[in-house]
Amino acid sequence: MNPDPKFDLTEHIDLVHYEVESKHQTLGVACTCGFRSHVKRDHTKHIVTETLIAAGLAEREDPR
Length: 64
Known about the structure:
By secondary structure, this protein is mainly alpha-helical. The chain has helices at residues 13-21, 40-54; strands at 26-27, 30-31.
């Protein structure tokens, strides 16, 4: 990943929050996006990863 040095994430933080909160909410063992795990730590990692992706700081891993 090579982020744009002119892009200021702090100017877009509300959009990043909305992007993640509107698609990723854990309810019991499942996230509203379909992610499932009985391990709470996995849920935390999932939300953090999705936040980094939405912020442009990480890329989605190929599920293959």
